[in-house]
TrEMBL record:
It holds the Pfam family GGDEF_2. InterPro entries: CdaR-like_regulators, CdaR_GGDEF, PucR_C-HTH_dom, PucR_C-HTH_sf, RsbRD_N_dom. Belongs to the CdaR family. Residues 343-401 form the PucR C-terminal helix-turn-helix domain. Signal peptide: none annotated. It comes from the Bacteria. Residues 165-295 form the CdaR GGDEF-like domain. This is PucR C-terminal helix-turn-helix domain-containing protein. Gene3D superfamilies: PucR C-terminal helix-turn-helix domain. Residues 19-153 form the RsbT co-antagonist protein RsbRD N-terminal domain. It comes from Nonomuraea longicatena.
Amino acid sequence: MTNDVVSQVATRCLAGYERLIEPWLAEVMTIEPYAGGLVGRDEVRAGARAGFALILRTLADGRPPAELAPHSEAMGERRAGQGMPLESLLAAARLDAKALWHGLLAHARPEDLPMLTQSAPLVWEAVELHNAGLMTGYQRAVLEMGRQREDQRRTWFARLVDNDGRNPDVVRDAGRVLGFDVAAPFVAAVADTTGPSAGVSDPAPDLGGDDLESAARGATLRAAVRTLTARGLRLHLHDSPAGEILIAQLPFRPGEAAQPVLDALAGIPCGLSPSVSGLARVPHAVRLATAAARAAASGGGPLRLEDGWLEVFTAHSPELAAELAARVLGPLYAAGAVERERLLETVRVHLDGDGAIAATAAALYCHRNTIQHRFARFRELTGRDVRVPSDAAVVALALKAAAAL
């Protein structure tokens, strides 16, 4: 890596290299945030003393000393932990080459200068080896800190859900870790929930775990996260066996506060909770969104709970839904297929309309007496009169259940 001239000049420079540090230090301490005192002057000087010695030894010995990589990487890790911006760290590191080159020139004999000048790339290479170690350590520390922050966020969100927002201390600390205003309004979205434990009346989902399927769902939700983050919303995305959970803090605005979330989720099969007031109510919102998500799994976009009550109730318990459909609509099979479909069509149109016989007759191009006769026949077969509100509710639920089977 070196030649005899560079080795000899570097060896002489090592004897008095500490004189190079003070001019270097004076320049470094003008760089922010060094200038603001993020790292103390004595600590910066000590780091330079070790770094300069190791670089000069690389040039003198023709190979990097064993301590170079650990020192460089350890310094990069430490600066990352101190919150030093990478560009500031590298700006200081670039001054190493300047200081060391001046030091080598000062210790070179006149006859050394031509060969030393030709060998300048060796000096930059030795400095870059140190800088590469700084970068490696810095990036490793940033990744580890990111993992630790994400683990901390997951842990505190799980605690918030586990105690159902009842502990004010947990709510406060979860808000601090997640970066949420605990008094703000929130919505929860849940994508692709599965399993009977995700229902609205069941306990909160056991958070944690991961698989390939949830990873694929996460990619979709991460796209929504990027969109919402660009709009300035505070978010938390969480994996759970019930699916992907997205919590969004809404602005303190009434009315259309949740609309940006709904827009970002367009095309994603997921459930969206109503807005809840305060972080303590987020576990409740998660349960509501989870219930809606099961009903939305086969759809092409988000399902708001308020837009899908019947779907949510039928999706909540597939076994009960199947039983309901069989008991309420099963007796229609006593009629022929043509009559059965005609009766079902009439009932569906009526329940989807405003409940007026005349409107149903107009929609089906029938006389109102024909509609009345069909309703009477439906009641004869099923025992349910769709003109009675309580019976109409049961029939509507049974129709949704049958459609979901």
